[in-house]
Amino acid sequence: METYIFVGLIFLFMIVLLVNGKREQKKQDAWWRKKLSELYGQASPYTLDVDALCHVKRFYEKHPMPHQVDDITWNDLDLDQLFERINYTQSTCGEEYLYYTLRTPVTEADKLDELEQKIQYFETHSENRVEAQLLFKKLGKLGKYSLYDYLDHLEILGEINNRFYLVWDLAVIAAVLVMFYSVPAGLIALVGVLVHNILTYFKKKKEIEPYICSFNYIFSMISVLEGMEKSFTDPLFSKELETIRGCNRELKKFKTGSFLVMQQRNGDIGGNPLMILID
What we know:
- By secondary structure, this protein is mainly α.
- Helix content is 72%, strand content 0%.
- The chain is built from 14 helices and no strands.
- It has helices spanning 2-39, 50-56, 58-62, 71-76, 79-86, 92-103, 109-124, 126-139, 147-154, 163-178, 183-231, 238-250, 259-262, 273-278.
């Protein structure tokens, strides 16, 4: 009887953590929705330091195009200040593409007209504008590193045999089952297994952190793409929506079983107690 009560309390504790995490997430989303609405039209608080300058250039450096603004012209015109002034992006991808756009001027009249229509759309549709910003904010920013810096690490990752870690994961379940026969023995076994797993986890995590960040950011991008597909149905964005649907189809297999990683929001699990337990 005591065993059932103990196991029941564990599950109840996990449910409480889950509910609390969802409630805190709703509060945070509401706070950001209000803040983004208030910031519209104000000067961007963004400042460009040396580390940030290194990573915002990466998309531009990876996509050379004819007639791009060269470094001499860029520096002579001090266009870094212009970038700072108009940078309201909420994600690493966004600010890297903004930088690329400034250094890759569009001259075709039809593309400029299309861009102007989209700008006017978000000026007049404040709810859609804030919704888009919230979606992009879920991607977040990677600090002083570019997404390309993390993706480059994937090429040297190689293959890792997971059998060792699966055995110790199964040992947790085995320890819980032992508690049905002997609570003291089960608790001792569970504590021992958890201590081993925690020590092994933190030792290995330092080695694989770049890869976790890479995959997690990709998973988050998939989630944002799905949100955009549902939220932006205006014919003005038909080209973008078609591209998004194509990307979702291509990444369908990749995202299978990835919901736990996506919940961690690029490694930031501090705001959700349940994610700490899962991590």
